Amino acid sequence: MFEKQENVGGACGEIYADTGSWGKYLWNPLVAGQNFEYKMSNILDKPFESVFGLISVLPGAFSAYRYAAVANHADGTGPLASYFHGEMMNLPGASASIFDRNKFLAEDRILAFEIVTKKNAKWRLQYVKSAKAGTDVPATVPEFISQRRRWLNGSYFASLYSLVCFWKIWTSGHNFFRKICLMVLMVYNLISTIFSTLSLSSFYLAFYFLIDSSIKGTRDPFGGAGDEIFQVFNKVYIALM
Predict the structure, then answer these.
(1) Sequence spans of domains, the chain
(2) Which of 19, 35, 166, 185 could form a disulfide with 52 if both were Cys (CB 3.0 to 4.6 A apart)?
(3) What is the SS3 string spanning the chain?
(4) Does residue 32 surpass a pLDDT of 90?
(5) How many CB atoms lie within 10 A of CB 25?
């Protein structure tokens, strides 16, 4: 990939969940759900973003970079400086905002954005479907929550950072057509971020109206007790949230 295309600054392959021999780990709902999530990401998200040349995240466990793409500028600014900024915040006496501390939980996302928008450069990121690597996924609830709390915080704030700094696209060395394509991707990411922000309420509203219409309608399957049962389901859902 790097030899054939000189403007590829980073590449990643497909990471798949280890499902064990004969898929025995899939009996665990957590593993099965993550296996589905990984597959959907590698079937839809990564190839789609690869077309634009800006993959939101090159997984740190299975990716490669061209040093010229991550190298800093002569003034010390650049992708590597942004990548290691999170480490600098942990030094004694260092201070950082809550936004920065959450943002640099996903430093690989920051690095991906900084490579593509590097000033006066035209690097792109590529997804290589033929390259595959397996990974162990969390199989217990505490492990899963710990991982996802870090991932969700980091990815959300890193997405906000890329949206706020969209103007860096226009200081890069990409041609005008590619800059327009990257702006289209930014609009897509903006819509995705809005839906992600509202997802909790959207799921609740979908649950509310579906259950309400099914057990409180004229054909109440619970013999008139549909309203009471609905209130129980509703309160349990709210308690879980």
Answers:
(1) 8-197, 203-240
(2) 185
(3) CCCCCCCEEEEEEEEEECCCHHHHHHHCHHHHHHHHHHHHHHHHHHHHHHHHCCCCCCCCCCEEECHHHHCCCCCCCCHHHHHHHHHHCCCCCCCCCHHHHHHHHHHHHHHHHHHHCCECCCCEEEEEEEEEEEECCCCCHHHHHHHHHHHHHHHHHHHHHHHHCHHHHHHECCCHHHHHHHHHHHHHHHHHHHHHHCHHHHHHHHHHHHHHHHHCCCCCCCCCCHHHHHHHHHHHHHHHC
(4) yes
(5) 19
Across the range 65-74, mean pLDDT stands at: 92
Provide the terminal-to-terminal Cα distance of the chain, rounded to the nearest Å. Answer: 45
Question: What are 119's strand-pairing partners?
Answer: 172
Q: What is the pLDDT of residue 218?
A: 59
